[in-house]
Amino acid sequence: MWLLGLPWALALLVTVASSGPTAEPPDPASIFADLTPAELRAVRTFLMERPELGLSPSRGGPLAKNSLFLVELLPPKKRSALRFLEHGGARPRREARAVLFFGAQAEPNITELAVGPLPRPSSYRPLGFKGGRAVPFSARPMTRLEYELLYEALVAALAPLEPLLREATGFGFQNCSERCLTFSDIAPRGLGPGERRTWLVIQRFVEGFFLHPAGLEVLLDHRDPDPRRWAVQRLWYNGRYFGSVRELAESHARGALPLARLPEPPPARHLFSSYEPRGRFPGGTPTEAHGAKVCEPQGRRYRLRGNRLEYGGWSLAFRLRSSAGLQLFDVRFGGERVAYELSVQEAIAFYGGHSPAAMQTKYMDAGWAMGASSYELARGVDCPETATFLDAHHLLDADGPVRFRRALCVFELPTGVPLRRHFDSDFQGGFHFYAGLEGRALVLRTTSTVYNYDYIWDFLLYPNGVLESKVHATGYIHATFYTPEGRRYGSRVHSHLLGNVHTHLVHYKVDLDVAGSGNSFETMDIRFENISNPWSAGARVSGTRAGVGQGPPPRPRLTPPLTCPRYHLAVTRRHENEPSSSSIYTQNDPWDPPVTFESFIRDNETIEDQDLVAWVTVGFLHVPHAEDIPNTATPGNAVGFFLRPFNFFNEDPSVASRAPVIVRPLDPPSCSRLEIRRWTPASPGPCVHPEPFTYNGTYRQV
């Protein structure tokens, strides 16, 4: 065993004739591959040309329009995929998932469509959620257009506060040139279903602006599709609430407002929020020289063919979903499937605070399209110089596919510790033998920069059949303006800055198929026991024993919409209508979302000899401190889990590796002559990567 109904109905199936030459059959793993730029464009063109949809471009125009928000692969059904992969059945129909915002109608809504077949789409059909749940228009993710309109509304509404802001911060919104204010928005956007009221944190727009709040937070209601009806409802300034912009402006004009005066910021290169080096290590060693590097002296030991990755005994298919990030399929070791799917589902951060923005913040990053926030990885920093870099293409809130350079990387990593080793002493100053196997792992990596935070997502493959899933948190902390009352909810990390306490929770889907799809779930309980010694009368022996029992521990009482992160582990039967534990809509409607994880486990189905899915939650509490300036560091801020074989093999499968070293003395006990056995070249050769550092950083429509 392995541890560990639509309000806008589309009743008509639209069909368009298509023709063209037949391409050569691609690799079987390609049934899980992300859509190519050509496929993304084909889907968009097909939908834009359907008159009954009435779609408008994403850019420009009013909010009250019909538009295409997202296009990504719709994975094939598992039964069809396995029939193709294992039994030579027909290749599954390749389809796209399209998310459409229908805002130009009396009752706006969100509709999802399956579009295919690709690469030449000719039809679409509606996609629904479990139980026929509809998606209200107010649950839609934010778009660039809405942010532009939000900024315009904010600038206009805060015009009476320009004297206050200039006096307190030296920055403003009006005619500001290089001394402008900006904002960060938090979510959920309200206190109940149907609301779209967002608290905006006003900040000075300098490098690392997340750490430069101005002391002002603004609640702006932007539910109405017409921005002319948007309005500021409340304000918070330096610890005090105000019912209107006018009330705050008049308080300042009367001289009755305690101003939160911020010091003049230094030049950009000297900001505390900058990465610019400053200071020296007392008595330290030089840091101007390059440090240790990863190298591949005999070339790569892994194989990458399209989206199929092979390493040692491992083989898997992968993709980078625009909505939620990395997803592995058909994970095999030694030719045998151990998991059908392993994927990131959601990343959550719950905050506490004294200011309204801080106390309201509950980020659910799938709602911010964390998979499409996969910006360029830097060679030699984000990944070793030897890594293979892959581009990603997303069609999210855009009028065409956007290329994200070097969004993923693959590399073999020396772990710095042997996979296993033993020194067999003769206890006379010599030894019988030494043997060791170097520690190596293959890493598949991407990142998600969801505004202030950067998540580094890794899947690691080890030669002993162990798979590790890991995420590191780094980037800027979500910070608010310091007030004495705020000390209850975090640390004062700079003069006017409070680092708010928060909890990171990351949710994964693990569809294990160990020796087939029919699996069971068992727990192993370790108990301490004290028993009579069978070979010495009257004596006692203490030790531990293991007992195996079926089923998970009792469920705690939960709040339904956000139950998935409250379980360390939940095991359910697999269903096609339960593909994900969260959705891109949960962030803006967490009170009544279309996907509720509690419904996955409420049915009380048997999980014995069934196709099972393990839903895994990992996380950590982050109490920010001064050392989180300028950024949270990765050491100590990483969590994950392992999939490990447990009596699945007859022995450690890494014995098939040809990388061990064995040393035996030929003349014990003097050990003056040694036999050194190894199956790799005696010397690895030169280990220098000749290319200089380069970086592009752009992500543009293609």
Automatic annotation (TrEMBL):
Residues 1-19 form the signal peptide. This is Amine oxidase. Its cofactor is Cu cation. Residues 140-240 form the Copper amine oxidase N3-terminal domain. InterPro entries: Cu_Am_Ox_Cu-bd, Cu_Am_ox_TPQ-bd, Cu_amine_oxidase, Cu_amine_oxidase_C, Cu_amine_oxidase_C_sf, Cu_amine_oxidase_N-reg, Cu_amine_oxidase_N2, Cu_amine_oxidase_N3. Belongs to the copper/topaquinone oxidase family. One of its GO terms (biological process) is amine metabolic process. PROSITE patterns: COPPER_AMINE_OXID_1, COPPER_AMINE_OXID_2. Residues 551-562 have a biased composition (Pro residues). Residues 39-123 form the Copper amine oxidase N2-terminal domain. The gene is Aoc1. Its EC number is 1.4.3.-. It is an enzyme of class 1 (oxidoreductase). It comes from Chaetops frenatus (Rufous rock-jumper). Topaquinone (TPQ) is generated by copper-dependent autoxidation of a specific tyrosyl residue.
